[in-house]
Amino acid sequence: MSNYELPKIWQWQDENDSASGNRPTAGSRFEQTLPVGAAPFQLYSLGTPNGIKIPIMFEELKEVGVADANYDLYKIDISQGDQFGSDFTAINPNGKIPALVDQSLQVTVFESGAILLYLAEKFGQLLPTEFHARTETLNWLFWQVGAAPFVGGGFGHFFEYAPEPMEYPINRYTMETKRQLDLLDQTLAKRAYIAGDDYTIADIAIWSWYGQIMLDRSYPGSAEFLSVQEYPHLMAWSQKIAERPAVKRGLAVTYHPIEE
Question: Which residues form the signal peptide (predicted)?
Fold first, then answer.
């Protein structure tokens, strides 16, 4: 039984969030100069489920012969607060990774789903042009964007990072995570990939979260806890995507430091 009493007005206590760097305010906190390389694209990110989507996308573009898909990749260390620097928040005012600059057009793009869509449209790859197939792909891309906070911010947080086990949030977010896994399993029982017969940006977005969970790469021990063997179609898809050469390269890519 918790001793917590709900206050009439919530007040932030710095000591509760000092490790994470979280605050109830937005915007930059310090002056920062990010490195800028010579490649057409400058990507500032980290190897999180959201972060890995974009190196995988670039490597998939290279795999199909897109000549202009070269990128410089820089590490934004969120544990050190790099995401709150002035240069980074100028690219993404929300202060979250990943963030992209297309130097050919001087366009900034933030949010992983938006970056996937931007690159797919720019190069005409991994997004069907036929109306129904395109719509289905976008259905699932935006499903992932809306659904993953329940898995990462909810289940993952209370399973892996909370200071002590808490039954209520664990039960709540585990139930929702398993519902989402079941939805994906039922979907993949009828089709080869998330949106149909072809591999798309929806697969990249969803695999980076759910495929990693199925393969026990996100929160150690969570695959057993979630009984992922109950989802055979999702498991087969997760393993299939993991074997793609571009996915392997995207996961192994080097994140260069922003300070020498």
Answer: none
Strand bridging mode 71-75 / 41-45: parallel
209: DSSP letter? I
| 145: phi then psi, degrees, rounded to nearest 5 | -60, -40
Cα–Cα distance, 131 to 154 (Å, whole number): 34
Instruction: From 111, 126, 140, 104, select the one nearest 58 (Cα to Cα).
Output: 126
Contact 142, 113 (CB under 8 A): yes
| Closest alpha carbon to 215 in 242, 188, 252, 246 | 242
pLDDT score of 15: 57
- The 10s digit of each residue's pLDDT in 4-48 is 899 999 999 875 555 568 899 999 999 999 999 999 999 999 999
120 and 65 in contact (C-beta within 8 Å)? no
Q: Which residues contact 162 (CB under 8 A, 6 or more apart)?
A: 169
**In this structure, what is the dihedral angle of CA atoms 231, 232, 235, 239, given to the nearest 10 degrees?**
180
Peptide bond into 169 cis (omega under 30): no
Sign of CA pseudo-dihedral 103, 104, 107, 112: negative
pTM as predicted: 0.96
For the stretch 59-85, pLDDT in tens is 999 999 999 999 999 999 999 999 999
Q: 31: which 2 tokens?
A: 């002056």
Helix (H, G, I), strand (E, B) or coil at 30: strand
CA dihedral 59, 249, 38, 73 (to 10 degrees): 110
Q: CB–CB of 40/103 below 8 Å?
A: yes
Q: Catalogue all structural domains in the chain, each as residue range(s) with its CATH number.
A: 131-244 (1.20.1050.10)
